[in-house]
Amino acid sequence: MLIGLMLSAQLVWAQEDRQTLFDNDLSLSNLGFMVEPGFQFTTIAGESAGFFQIRTGIVFNDRITVGGFYGDMVNDIRPSTLNSSLPPRAHLDAYTAGGFLEYTVYSSKLVHLTLPLSAGMMEVEIDDEGRYYDYEERKNLFFEPRAMIELNLHRFARLNAGLGYRIMGSAIQDDPGVPEAGNALTFQVGLKMGVFSFSQLKQ
Fold this sequence. Notes:
8-stranded antiparallel barrel; 1 helix; mainly beta; elongated
């Protein structure tokens, strides 16, 4: 679906005026940067989980963004699949880290579409506050396509919200005592701030 949207948008552009990523040569005026704090609602091992996430990246022609992200789970969950012999305070903790590629359609419009594709690693571990030893952990690769609606609040600030789907990949570290995170739908909100194109500073 995401690829289809990107191709159809590019087809519309091609009919109006043929453009390329590096129109008029690549220069500082074509570049920008962004920082985006956000919050993600999803599930981990079948339980509701929230992640605080920070993304940062370099923007090309206010259209394509390449960058990295880090997310940390903010609530404690104890799924039913967790070993019942563990202490009552034992729960799951998780974080994510990786990179992303994002394609934005008609960024100059008040409301527009942006399509991020994230890829990285998720670590899920059993935690117990006040413990004197570490439990094992599970690390998996994952990727997550999203479709986001974005609102231009200011020329240096954009609010976005949308849906994605987290697809878990191969294990980097696998411990049978730690429940699998599992594939899951995600809902993301964020506030994107930055100079999306240095040409904006001349306006």
